[in-house]
Write a structure and sequence with these properties.
The protein has 291 residues and is α/β, with parallel strands linked by helices. The chain is built from ten helices and 14 strands. It has two domains: 214 residues, P-loop containing nucleotide triphosphate hydrolases (Rossmann fold); 69 residues, Alpha-Beta Plaits (2-Layer Sandwich), CATH 3.30.70. Strand 1 and strand 2 form a beta hairpin. The mean pLDDT is 90.
């Protein structure tokens, strides 16, 4: 039995396509990435998977249970973190999380305090006084506190500072070692690479590729910026470089190829500084599919 099965899931908003014929399968115990630019259809897919949207057509199952026929039953076993969080302003975090626990028949609230300590959330503050990052922490705890078998996370790191992101990823790795299946949606490629074994890439509402992360890494483009101490009179870019731009002593280009070959190419020149970053996802996808 697979943790998640989606078959030809389609959602139209009037004449506009939200998602179209989305299909994917997530094995139990897997950390599965779901990546695409904003507006690609990630949240629509997840809301349909959670039974919060009625699709135009298609099927979805979590742990073998049809989410449209038995949604209430399966949601007892799933932890869900939406991309946007909206709570009752006048409740404290503790009141909110205790209220959430009672939906699951949980009367021992020790797990709330354990998670609040890990994620450094002040449980006594009212929701309206929380920053966006602290509201996201509250949402994370809400998704985890009933100890679900499957975690579905939609842009979970937005609002978290880098240190708290590290805490969050470490906790997810711990849960995965315990057998929890994680479906992780993001528009940040490095997050997917950091934790996932496989990833589905969605663009314009359609799945365009499902890749192992190792394969995706080999196809990953880098944006390279070089600052020369001395600008060479003539040079040729390494194979795999494109979209060159040079202004004064600053050279930039997109690169898809061997890191060893790039380092060997760089070693020929008198260089002051080099940076390599990920391009925006749209550029990555355009490069990926044009090639």
């Amino acid at each position: 039995m697979r943790a998640i099965t989606i078959e030809n899931l389609t959602k139209y908003y009037g004449k506009n396509i939200g998602i179209e014929k989305v299909s994917l399968q997530v094995e139990q115990g897997e950390v599965y990435g779901f990546i695409g630019p904003n507006g690609a259809g990630k949240s629509t897919t997840i809301r349909a998977l959670m039974g919060l949207l009625i699709p135009t057509s298609g099927k979805a199952k979590i742990l073998g249970v049809d989410v449209f026929k038995d949604g209430a039953k399966i949601r007892q076993r799933v932890g869900y973190l939406p991309s946007e969080i909206d709570y009752y302003d006048k409740m404290t975090s503790l009141e909110l999380l205790e209220y959430h626990c009672r939906f699951y028949g949980i009367t021992d609230y020790s797990k709330i305090h354990e998670l609040a300590s890990i994620f450094e959330l002040d449980l006594e503050k009212e929701i309206e006084d929380l920053s966006f990052g602290n509201k996201k922490k509250c949402g994370i705890i809400q998704a985890l506190v009933h100890e679900p078998e499957v975690l579905i996370l939609d842009e979970p790191t937005s609002g978290l500072d880098p240190l708290m992101q590290n805490v969050f990823f470490d906790y997810l790795k711990k849960l995965n070692k315990e057998g929890i299946t994680i479906f992780f949606s993001s528009h940040v490629l490095s997050e997917i690479q950091r934790i996932c074994q496989r990833a589905a890439i969605i663009r314009n509402g359609k799945i365009v590729e499902i890749e192992n992360i190792d394969t995706l890494l080999k196809k990953q483009m880098k944006l390279v910026k070089v600052i020369f101490r001395v600008v060479p009179d003539h040079f040729e870019l390494p194979e795999g470089a494109q979209k060159q731009s040079i202004v004064n002593n600053k050279l930039s280009f997109e690169y898809l190829g061997s890191m060893n070959e790039l380092v060997q190419w760089l070693s020929q020149y008198n260089i002051y500084d080099v940076t390599m970053t990920e391009p925006d996802l749209e550029s990555l996808f355009m490069n990926y599919y044009e090639r």
